[in-house]
Design a protein that fits this description.
The chain is an all-alpha fold and 448 residues long. The chain contains 23 helices and no strands.
Length: 448
């Protein structure tokens, strides 16, 4: 259940208690933005929660939503807050949907997509299709409902049926192009755009939804696609920029990590280095992934070596706090206790306020509780100074991470480009299997 607190909300609570609601819509010219109708309702609902519990909060939200005007976008935040009740209680579900017009449902569906509220996306998009199956937004809402099903359901058939419906009912629409790509992503990518769509689905399942079971299926779709001829031809194509090849290789590397195929990571990273060198962000992330892959394979000596090198080669990286913590863990698990203790302490000192620093404190405080380990961390100040000087000594990445070219590949049978489901856009003469998903979606947006 989300609770939205802001300075303006805190200011409005005393006024709510005084019954001074009308004056809140007036912009006094102060440094604070005017309070919206939705924010007033959320503030009142929060006050109801404090005085009467969660049922009182739900009733406050529902009462305000029942009389909402269809074009009142300020009240959309109330609908989003009600989703937490509608998901579990039929009365709230009905009360949330009954006042909605088709335009409202389309607007709320887009808001849910933007805020990654996928259960709400499914609810609002499907209600739109029930209310206005032939409405002007029906193709878009069908696609959004399909995406929600693909993310939430174990069974992929409902999503595929909806995407196939878009292709069947609106074959010449821009939505049909998108539907073909995502359906292909689920059935098995045969194009770069579909591989990227599978990545997007898997990323949202693992990072936004915390749904590892479904995410693993997406991971395997990407890894299987990377073994297909179309991907090997893409990497071998002289018409594709090295930076684009490196980006797609890192996408595969990401899914190798997610699927616990850690042995693949160093090889993929080496190919990225060969394509773009060691300076781009994608190379930096590949270097970090190499050390992390050894840690996850329980190869602690190798993990410590690569993570320590990462801190020297990329000291300003956003992944530096993680690298420092994981380096300490690698030392700890390989029984190099003094090095581990020092690295935990440095993690706290060099990256204060981070989650990694907090975890490092827990680890070294645990070590201090054991007498034997207290002996191991004696004279830590001197050792810490030596260690810090070592980490601040820069190194060239190429002295640590090997670069290896992508293996040569020639198609078994030369012929014209295959007709992928993700086609109909792209430069003339270019293999349509190689069109990127961003180009498809950009073309879709430009036409709307």
């Amino acid at each position: 259940m989300r609770h939205r607190e802001s300075t303006s909300t805190l200011l409005v609570l005393p006024l709510l208690l005084l019954g001074a609601l009308p004056c809140l819509a007036v912009d006094t010219g102060s440094e604070f933005p005017p309070v919206t109708r939705g924010e007033r309702v959320l503030a009142a609902a929060q006050q109801a929660l404090k005085s009467g519990g969660w049922r009182a909060k739900g009733q406050t939200l529902l009462s305000a939503w029942e009389n909402v005007a269809p074009d009142d976008e300020e009240m959309d935040v109330v609908a989003m807050e009600l989703l937490g009740y509608a998901r579990y209680y039929t009365a709230y579900n009905t009360g949330l949907l009954e006042p909605c017009t088709a335009d409202q449902l389309a607007r709320l569906s887009r808001k849910c997509r933007e805020e990654k509220e996928f259960w709400g996306l499914k609810l609002f998009a499907e209600e739109y299709l029930r209310l206005a199956p032939h409405g002007q937004d029906a193709p878009e809402m069908t696609n959004l409902a399909a995406l929600a099903h693909a993310l939430l359901d174990i069974d992929t058939e409902p999503a595929l049926a909806l995407w196939d419906e878009v292709v069947s009912r609106w074959p010449d629409s821009t939505e049909a192009i998108e539907a073909r790509v995502y359906a292909e992503a689920i059935r098995g990518p045969q194009s770069i755009a579909a591989l990227e769509a599978a990545y997007r689905i898997g990323y949202m399942q693992s990072r936004d939804l915390g749904n590892p079971y479904n995410a693993l299926h997406s991971d395997m779709r990407v890894l299987k696609a990377a073994d297909q001829d179309f991907f090997k031809e893409y990497l071998a194509s002289p018409d594709v920029l090295p930076s684009e090849k490196a980006e797609l290789l890192y996408l595969v590397l990401f899914h190798a990590h997610q699927a616990a195929k850690y042995k693949k990571v160093p090889e993929l990273a080496a190919q990225i280095f060969d394509l773009v060198g060691y300076e781009p962000l994608v190379a930096e992330k590949a270097a970090f992934s190499t050390g992390l892959s050894y840690l996850l394979r329980l190869m602690y000596d190798e993990a410590a070596e690569y993570l320590e090198a990462f801190l020297q080669a990329y000291p300003e990286s956003r992944d530096a706090p993680r690298a420092s913590l994981h380096c300490a863990q690698a030392y700890d698990r390989s029984r190099r206790k003094q090095k581990a203790f020092i690295q935990y302490v440095l993690t706290e000192e060099l990256y204060p306020g981070t989650e990694e620093a907090k975890e490092a404190v827990i680890c070294y405080e645990s070590m201090l509780k054991h007498h034997r380990e207290r002996i191991l961390v004696s004279n830590v100040s001197e050792a810490k100074a030596v260690r810090l000087a070592q980490l601040r000594r820069p190194i060239r990445p190429e002295t640590v991470w090997e670069a290896r070219p992508i293996p040569d590949f020639k198609p078994a049978v030369a012929g014209s480009p295959q007709d992928s489901t993700a086609t109909t856009v792209g430069k003339a003469g270019r293999d349509r299997r190689f069109v990127r998903l961003a180009s498809i979606l950009a073309g879709k947006s430009a036409s709307q």
